[in-house]
Each structure stands twice: as C-alpha cells, then as structure tokens.
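Q: What residues go here?
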C-alpha cells in the first residue's frame, strides 16, 4: 500500500514502530497517553498534538499527514539521528556552532573519525551518524583555533566529518543531505594539505550519483578520482595502494552498472594487480582494499553484467576463511551478491538460504539495504516456509522513498 493510503492514526503507529510504545511516546511529547491513543484511533488530533508527535518521532508533519513518504525502514532512533545529523551538517557549514562545542585537538578528532569509520564498516550506520553529530562542530571549532597558513590539517579533519555524514545520509536514502554533506566535504578537502583528500571526496560524490541513478556522471567522477591518485607501484605505500585500489575498484563497479564491459575489464585488471601488489587487506582513510576485496567485488560486477555463470564460478573460487579479512559490511555485501547470482541461476532455495544467513547474521546492517528486496523480487519458486521467514526478516517496505528513487540492482550499492 502507498503511504497516503493509510489513515493518519495508522501512520503514527507505523512511525512509532515496535521500539516506541504509546506510553513512551506520551513521555517524549509531554502529552497524556489518552491523547496519543485518540490520535492513533483517528478520533482527535489537534495541531499542537501533531507538532509534538512529529518532533518526537523525528519526521515532518507532512509525513504524518501522508503528504510525504517516510524514509525506508527507519526506526525512531534512525530518524532522530538523521535529524540531528542534518542540523549538524547545515549549522556547521553556516558557522552556527553550539556553545558547548569544544576545541578538541587534532589527535582527539582523528580518534573520533576512526571510531566513525569502524562503526560504518560494521554496518552500524546510526552509530556512525550519531558520532558525526558532535564531531562536525568540534572540528569547526578546532579549525577556527588554527593560525592562518596552518589550517590544512584541520580542513582535512572537517572534510572527513562531512564525508562520513554524506555516506550515512546516502545509505539512509536522504538524497538532499547526502548532496549537501559531500559538497561541504569537497570545499573543505580543496583547502586541506592532504593530496588524497579531494579524490576520497570525489569518489564519495560518485557514489551519491550512483544512488541517484546518474550513471554517466558517477562513472566520469569515479574514473577521475582514481586517475588523480594513481601511484607508481614501485614507490607506493600501503595507504596509497589501499586508496587507489578502492577507487579503481569502484570505477569498475560503476562501469558495470553502465554496461561498459571493456572499461570493466580494464579497471578490474588494475584492481586485481593492486590487490596482488598489496598481498593482504589493508584499511586506511575510511576504506579497505586488498586481494580478497578485489575478488569479492568482481562477483557483484559479474552479476551486474548478467554473467551469472562467471559470478558463481568466482564465488566457488573464494575460500570462506579468506573472508575474515574483510569488514563486516563487505562480507555481508558479498553474501548479497552471491544470493543475487543464485537467484539469477534459478537456484531459489540456495539463494534464500544465503540471504537468510546474512539477514540473521547482520540484522542492523540489513535494515538499511535495498538488495534483499531486489533479490526477493527475482525469486520465483522456493520453499514456502523459507520464503515466509526471509520475508519476515526483510520486513514490510513502503515501496516509496522520500529521497532517492527506489533502489534497483543497478543503483543499490
């Protein structure tokens, strides 16, 4: 059912979800439980009550009234985080900083940034966003405290904060915030003294473009980001190879979505060579790359190109024990690509088994993914009991998204 098809009371109950009871919502709003019950039963809803409920649930009044659809699969805690993150991004960019923001040193800020990326790569996107909320104004205060001509490192820290915000917004389907945050990240990166920073941000913007189905723009930017930082292999550090490898690998991913097979082969070859040069997985600058990353990403690329047999052959050639070097999010994504390949091969039960294992293993990560729904749409015949279990794990999706267009196999990443 479309969001507008529900009554106002039903929409409040859906937005409240299982994690917020009527009594909890009453406490959050300062309203009586009877007032909440009346609103949910469509008996009575004053403007004051509407405003208080909308604020407590972290949504616009238009969402409650059915004029605008809610973000896909967001819990109350997610919506609260996103509202705070949006305020932090826009206020920091405007120079409006809270009085409580402290001028932490660069080392302390870098520690928080590292914690953000750790949470992000574990699939804990709400945690990453929550950490970024105080990080942004603190990074801005730190920047103000640096002497003229000595602000390059501080600009780099602020760029990282905005980039984290953009990544979280992109995964949450908040298109406008993703564009705004990556734009602020670009402005900060261009003033940093870090040669890798502009390329990192450019790759992030390419990902926003991909989620927005702007494939040509995404490919152009992904290619440029990789070429701008291509190192000399004989002199390259592990950090340089990690950043370059992840960038050229992403260019291959975007090229596969655009069905440019020759570019895919070229970029995959470079990614594989980079991974071989590194020898092991290495994490740096908010990204991870190595030989296993190159191999697992090749599976998703083959799936995107419709090369089902090749994708399954690649899956068979990747030992399970090698996956331990990947981040949790990367392992889960590999499972999604594997399940997609199995669905394309009409291996219905195998696909559902792979999908179910990933959903059970990483329920928090799975809440923010579009691919499970795409895979379910592909599955024709399978065990009825397993279909019911996997459907329950995925949950009810509205089918609409207030930010980006609904994700597809091309744009879901």
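A:
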């Amino acid at each position: 059912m479309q969001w507008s098809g529900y009554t106002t009371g039903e929409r409040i109950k859906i937005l409240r979800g299982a994690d917020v009871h009527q009594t909890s919502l009453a406490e959050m709003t300062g309203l009586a439980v009877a007032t909440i019950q009346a609103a949910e039963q469509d008996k009575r809803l004053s403007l004051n009550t509407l405003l208080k409920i909308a604020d407590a649930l972290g949504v616009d009044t238009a969402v409650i009234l059915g004029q605008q659809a809610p973000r896909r699969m967001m819990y109350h805690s997610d919506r609260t985080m996103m509202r705070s993150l949006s305020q932090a991004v826009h206020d920091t960019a405007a120079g409006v900083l809270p009085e409580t923001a402290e001028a932490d040193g660069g080392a302390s800020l870098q520690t928080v940034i590292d914690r953000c990326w750790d949470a992000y790569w574990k699939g804990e996107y709400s945690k990453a966003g929550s950490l970024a909320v105080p990080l942004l104004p603190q990074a801005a205060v730190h920047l103000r405290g640096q002497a003229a001509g000595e602000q390059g490192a501080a600009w780099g820290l602020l760029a990282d904060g905005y980039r984290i915000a953009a990544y979280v917004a992109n995964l949450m389907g908040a298109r406008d915030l993703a564009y705004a945050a990556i734009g602020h990240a670009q402005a900060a990166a261009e003033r940093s003294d870090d040669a890798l920073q502009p390329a990192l941000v450019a790759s992030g913007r390419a990902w926003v473009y991909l989620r927005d189905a702007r494939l040509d723009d995404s490919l152009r930017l992904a290619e440029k980001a990789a070429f701008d930082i291509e190192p000399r292999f004989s002199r390259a550090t592990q950090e340089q190879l990690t950043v370059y490898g992840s960038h050229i690998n992403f260019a291959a991913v975007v090229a596969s979505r655009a069905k440019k097979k020759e570019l895919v082969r070229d970029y995959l070859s470079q990614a594989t060579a980079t991974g071989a040069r590194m020898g092991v997985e290495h994490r740096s600058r908010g990204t991870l790359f190595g030989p296993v990353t190159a191999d697992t990403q090749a599976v998703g690329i083959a799936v995107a190109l419709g090369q089902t047999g090749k994708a399954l052959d690649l899956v068979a050639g990747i030992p399970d024990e090698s996956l331990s070097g990947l981040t949790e999010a990367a392992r889960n994504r590999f499972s999604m690509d594997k399940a997609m390949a199995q669905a394309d091969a009409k291996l219905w039960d195998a696909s559902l088994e792979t999908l179910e294992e990933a959903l059970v293993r990483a329920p928090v990560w799975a809440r923010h993914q579009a691919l499970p729904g795409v895979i379910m749409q592909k599955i024709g015949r399978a065990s009825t009991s397993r279909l019911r279990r996997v459907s329950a794990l995925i949950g009810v999706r509205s089918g609409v998204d207030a930010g980006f267009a609904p994700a597809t196999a091309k744009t879901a990443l």
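A: Context that may help when evaluating the design: The longest helix spans residues 125-144. Residues 396-406 have pLDDT under 50 and may be disordered.
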